[in-house]
Amino acid sequence: MKQKTKTFFLASAVTLFAFSLICYPQQSLEASIRGLNMWWEVVFPSLLPFFIVSELLISFGVVNLLGVLLEPLMRPLFRVPGVGGFAWAMGMASGYPSGAKLTARLYQEKQISAIEAERLASFTNSSNPLFIFGAVSVGFFHNPNLGLILAASHYMGNICVGMIMRFHGKAEEKERPKRPRRAFSLPYAFRVLHETRLKNEQPLGKLLGDAVRSSVQTLLMIGGFIILFSVVNKLLYMMHITEHIALIFQYILHLLQMPKELSIPMISGLFEITLGSQMISQTDEAELLQKAIATSFVLAFGGFSVQAQVASILAEANIRFKPFFIARMMHGCFAACFTYILWKPLYLQTVGNNTGAIPAFFAVHSASGWNNYWKLMQQFGPIVTISFLCLYIWLTAAAMPKKKQ
Q1: Residues in domain Nucleoside transporter/FeoB GTPase Gate (predicted)?
Q2: How many domains does the chain have?
Q3: Residue whose C-alpha is closest to residue 54's, from 119, 113, 124, 115
Q4: pLDDT tens-digit series, residues 362-378
Q5: Cis before residue 97, ω within 30 degrees of 0?
Q6: Mapping DSSP to helix (H, G, I), strand (E, B) and coil, where does residue 218 land?
């Protein structure tokens, strides 16, 4: 009965989606173009270098070296092997869904167990500084100082999630033999690096080609999800479904003493963080603190678009998605709470400090740097995207077996 209900629900949802596309073709086209522009201007060129470098670092054994060195830190804090530190750092630097991709790769390489993969995926996925400072704080809010508190709340919340998720799967882990732990040893770390490189005897050109093809393939999947959820979000608004869901959000916002006008922007943010953050910044009825709290929750939750990307990546490696979703709910709550707690000591003092002291100087100049980088990505991103798509087509064609005449 449960499977029949699921089948009926999925069939109905897809049929409704197809019918909506027919009813609102113009709005669907505009939404898909908006999603496509976001993907090929910013997402593809900003994530591609991280994906390629990550693949190469894993192939050359650098990740194994870092795993030995970071074991004393990652194991006590998060109960994951030291290689998780690499996924954590790359996830924070490059943003969604890099952490999930690296976690899946480490699991497929048998460097972490399934439970450790679920823990690692829960706190290695986050928004990158480029998006927080460049797009949200400067682009949407026109307030460079806001990026500092959004970033601090976001990453502190992620650390809290990781420390809570260390208890995930504890009972299941007891039934399995424990892996031997090694103390910090630099000679042993370099020996592991050398042995890993020797195991992978493929030529450098082959490794580079495989890294580019794997990275572009993942980014094509990410682009599809961005466009899909951009259209879904628009169609829900056109069919007035968003307005009905907003009634529930208005009740929750009332309990939290926040204006009801934030309900529709937050619902949009639950589907796609870029549109949600932009709509929150344009809500005149809310105070800046209230808008910052709502934006922090949306950024940490990630949106169903990002979660669908992560679910697809984790599913390929047979890693459960449920722990990741629970972690995103916790991350949203933690980030919103930290924004409220840090507002006075971090934001108000930074804004009020107009004497040229270090905090205000650092906040403004670091944010302006990210904003300049964001504009460069929008200007030259499409060229990078098209170039690598052509390279991907050439590499894929070259890798295909040639038919005998």
Answers
A1: 42-139, 219-315
A2: 1
A3: 124
A4: 444 555 566 666 677 77
A5: yes
A6: helix
Q: Is 9 a member of any domain? A: no
Nearest to residue 100, comparing CAs of 341, 396, 307?
307
* CB-facing half-sphere around the CA of 115: CA atoms within 13 A: 16
In a domain, 97, yes or no: yes
pTM of the model: 0.83
Task: Provide the residue range defining the domain that includes 86.
Answer: 25-169+181-397
Specify if 371 maps to a domain.
yes
Buried b (16+ CB within 10 A) or exposed e, 83-117: bbbbbbebbbebbbbbbbbbbbbbbeeebbbebbb
List own/partner pairs for 255-263 with CB under 8 A and 24 or more apart. 258/286, 258/290, 258/293, 258/294, 259/283, 259/285, 259/286, 259/290, 261/285, 261/286, 262/286, 262/290, 262/291, 262/294
Q: Residue 58 carries which side chain, given as an amino acid letter?
A: I
More confident residue, 232 or 382: 232
292, 259 contact by CB (below 8 A): no
Side chain identity at residue 94, one-letter code? S
Distance CA(321)–CA(315), nearest Å, equals: 8
